[in-house]
Specification:
The chain is of the alpha/beta class. It has a 5-stranded mixed β-sheet with strand order 4-5-6-7-8, sandwiched between helices. Strands 9-10-11-12-13 form a 5-stranded mixed β-sheet.
């Protein structure tokens, strides 16, 4: 009986890995252990899949990843046609994987986004989620859902050049997703404005308002500093914080703490309770609508920065430089980087992620 159970688990993990390679086009080699949940187990799966002829390894220009063989594509189409046909048939870039480094790195960025939301427990496969921009799409509530670039762009040329990886929706809130890895994205304001307008237009068809927000996924907390300090590069072709979106949230990939940060961003009801809880530590709450600081503690301004919204972080830094030091409230994994950004003299009030998670769980129960 135990051998049968183990076999079922291996089959499930094997197929999950194959499906993640399929929707990625090329899965970065370092993601296999993250997808499967164990680097050693992933290594044995990859060895078996290569031996059986389901996948090939591609190592070129210092970039290493896995792609499906013809046999692997046939297997997935036979067993998971609904989930796989858009990625393994026709002229899609995931079905015809190019060998040029730039095109491969684009697929790697998409793969990192797919993997991040998969690990977060979001629905990512077609058979499990409403069609994008359908009537039920914007009314999704509890379970997070992620739609990749091919689903988002839907074959239209209007947003073809956008750097967006996809669209994340949860609790009725939608976010255009970008994966910056550890390099500033090439950024054409006109193209990204078109992406924003595209999503807004789809929402208006169902008489819904959209917050015009974006999530930037990065490979590390440290890269946040480069994004915040970017001036667009010599030719002004790289990303810098602008007015394309109303809010930009920076979230490091894969970590459980970053999933807590996401909940604080998207779950309006829970966030409202959480902020009320934080207000209890203040001597005075600042009630002005557009105030950068949340209030005062011992006559020092207190700033809530745990959402890591880029425009807000820049405003906080400017106010600290103008008006003197204050107190920055953030999650524990954010503290070191934010301390470096705001300066050594700022006081950090660090929230332990595990405690925050417990509080959020209690609010939902």
């Amino acid at each position: 009986m135990s051998r049968h159970t183990a076999g079922e688990k291996m089959e499930t993990k094997r197929d999950t890995l194959l499906k993640m390679i399929a929707i990625s086009g090329e899965l970065p080699s370092y993601l296999t252990g993250i997808v499967v949940g164990s680097p050693s187990y992933a290594a044995s799966l990859v060895t078996a899949l290569k031996k059986d002829g389901y996948i090939h390894i591609r190592s070129k220009d210092g970039v290493r990843g896995y792609i499906l063989s013809k046999k692997g594509k046939t297997y997935l189409l036979n067993h998971y046609e609904t989930d796989m046909r858009d990625y393994l048939t026709g002229a899609s870039e995931t079905n015809h994987v190019k060998s040029e480094k730039e095109k491969r790195l684009r697929l790697h960025r998409m793969s990192l986004a797919w993997t991040h939301f998969f690990l977060q427990g979001c629905i990512i496969f077609s058979s499990e989620k409403p069609e994008i921009f359908s009537e039920s799409f914007f009314r999704q509530k509890e379970t997070g859902t992620y739609y990749g670039s091919q689903e988002l762009k839907g074959g239209t040329d209007k947003i073809k050049g956008s750097r967006a990886c996809g669209l994340f929706i949860k609790k009725g809130e939608a976010f255009v997703v970008y994966q910056t890895m550890e390099n500033l994205l090439k950024w054409a304001k006109k193209t990204e404005h078109a992406m924003r307008a595209w999503v807004e237009g789809k929402a208006l068809r169902y008489n819904l308002s959209w917050g015009s927000d974006a999530i930037f996924l990065g490979n590390s907390m440290a890269f946040l500093l480069q994004i915040l300090e970017s001036t667009g590069g010599i030719k002004n072709q790289l990303f810098q914080v602008d007015e394309t979106y109303e809010h930009y949230y920076y979230i490091p990939c894969f970590s459980t703490p970053s999933f807590i940060q996401t909940d604080l961003i998207v779950d309006g009801k829970t966030t409202k309770h959480f902020k009320k809880f934080l207000y209890t530590m203040l001597d005075e709450v600042e009630n002005r609508e557009f105030s950068v600081h949340a209030g005062y503690q011992k006559q020092r301004r207190v700033y809530f920065c745990y959402e890591m919204e880029l425009k807000h972080l820049i405003q906080v830094k400017m106010e600290l430089e103008r008006k003197g030091n204050g107190v920055v409230v953030c999650l524990d994994y954010q503290a070191e980087t934010l301390k470096e950004y705001f300066g050594e003299e700022v006081e950090m009030m660090v929230l332990v992620c595990e405690k925050v998670k417990q509080y959020l769980d209690m609010q939902r129960s």
